[in-house]
Design goal:
mitochondrion; mitochondrion outer membrane; 59% strand; mainly beta; 19-stranded mixed barrel; Porin
Length: 318
C-alpha cells in the first residue's frame, strides 16, 4: 500500500512523472477572480525542487528527440552499493486542444534491464477534466495499477483515485483530493484515503493548507498519519531556500530538513545543498558544458550518524 499512496499523495515531482502546472501565481491576478489552486500533488513542490536529488555511482543519460511528439532517453547506472541497471524511457507529447502545456507528456513508458515496467498515461478529456493511469510491474509481477480523474474548476480542484482494485482478494484503495482557493493567497483542502482488504479496513483524513506571497510559500498537511510542513522562500534571482518538517505517527519519527539552491547563470552552474536532523549533509552541482549539449552532475552525501559516504558523477546529454 505504501507505493500506491506515494504515487497518489506524495508531494513533489519525485513521485509524479508528469510536469503538472507550476505553483499558481495568485498575486498576478488582476480580474478579481480567485485562481485555480492546482493539483494536490504540487502543494509542496516549490520547496521540494530546492533540495538536491541523491546521486551515487556513475550515471549517463542520453536524450534524443525523434520528432515533435516523441522523445526517448537511455540511462546507464553503475554502482557499487545498489545493482547496476540500464533503463529505456520514451515519451509521447500531447497535442490536443484542451492541453495548456503543449510540451507535457501524455504517455510515458520505462523499462529497465531487470524487466520492470513503469507506464503512465495522461488524457485531457475536456478543458477541465483530466484522467491519469499508472501501471507498475516488478519483473513479472504487477505492483501498482491506478486510475485517477481530476476536475479543475475556476477556483477549486477535485480528484478521485482508485488504486490496486482486486475483486478476488476483495481489496481496493480509494483516494479523494479537494483544494479550494479561499483568497488570493490562501488555499485550503484535504485528502481522504480509504483502504479495504480481507484482514483490515480503515481510512485516513489529512487536512491541507497553503499560504502564498510573491516571494514565499508556506504549506501544511496534518492528519492522523502525521504532519508535513514546508516553507519556500526566494531571496533573489539566484538564491532559493526551503525548510521541511515531517512527522509520522506510524514510525514515531520526525525529520527537519533545510535546503537551498544557488544559480550562477554566468557560469552555467546550479548548486543545491541540504542538511537534516538525521545528520545527513549533501550537495549536487550541475554544470552546463557549453557549447556541448551536455550537463555534468557531481554530488556527494555524508551520513555522519551512520558513518556513510555516497559520491556520484553523472552526465546528461541532449
Amino acid at each position: 500500500m505504501g507505493s500506491v499512496l506515494a504515487l497518489s499523495s506524495g508531494p513533489g515531482h519525485q513521485n509524479w512523472p508528469f510536469s503538472t502546472d507550476p505553483p499558481p501565481s495568485r498575486w498576478d491576478r488582476r480580474d478579481g477572480r480567485l485562481p485555480n489552486p492546482g493539483s494536490f500533488h504540487s502543494l509542496h513542490r516549490s520547496c521540494k525542487d530546492v533540495f538536491p536529488q541523491q546521486i551515487e555511482g556513475v550515471k549517463m543519460i542520453i536524450n534524443k528527440t525523434l520528432s515533435s511528439f516523441f522523445k526517448v532517453s537511455h540511462t546507464l547506472h553503475l554502482s557499487a552499493v545498489s545493482p547496476s541497471y540500464y533503463r529505456f524511457h520514451v515519451e509521447h507529447l500531447q497535442s490536443d486542444d484542451y492541453s495548456k502545456d503543449k510540451d507535457a507528456p501524455a504517455l510515458i513508458g520505462e523499462m529497465d534491464s531487470s524487466g520492470s515496467l513503469n507506464a503512465h498515461a495522461l488524457l485531457h478529456l475536456s478543458e477541465r477534466v483530466r484522467a491519469r493511469t499508472v501501471f507498475q510491474t516488478q519483473q513479472s509481477q504487477f505492483v501498482t495499477w491506478q486510475f485517477e480523474t481530476e476536475y479543475r474548476g475556476n477556483d477549486f480542484t477535485a480528484a478521485v483515485t482508485v488504486a490496486n482494485p482486486d475483486v478476488l482478494r476483495e481489496s481496493v484503495i480509494l483516494v479523494a483530493h479537494f483544494l479550494q482557493s479561499v483568497s488570493s493567497g490562501l488555499v485550503l483542502g484535504g485528502e481522504l484515503v480509504y483502504h479495504r482488504g480481507r484482514a483490515e479496513e480503515g481510512g485516513i483524513l489529512t487536512l491541507a493548507g497553503q499560504y502564498s506571497r510573491p516571494n514565499w510559500v508556506a504549506t501544511l498537511n496534518a492528519g492522523k498519519g502525521g504532519a508535513h510542513a514546508s516553507y519556500y522562500h526566494r531571496a533573489n534571482k539566484q538564491i532559493q531556500v526551503g525548510v521541511e518538517f515531517e512527522a509520522s505517527t506510524r514510525t514515531q519519527e520526525t525529520t527537519t530538513s533545510f535546503g537551498y539552491q544557488m544559480e550562477l547563470p554566468e557560469a552555467n552552474m546550479v548548486f543545491r545543498g541540504m542538511i537534516n536532523s538525521r545528520c545527513i549533509i549533501g550537495g549536487v552541482l550541475e554544470k552546463r558544458l557549453t557549447p556541448l549539449p551536455a550537463t555534468l552532475i557531481m554530488g556527494a552525501f555524508v551520513n555522519h550518524r551512520g558513518d556513510k559516504l555516497q559520491v556520484g558523477l553523472g552526465v546528461n546529454v541532449g
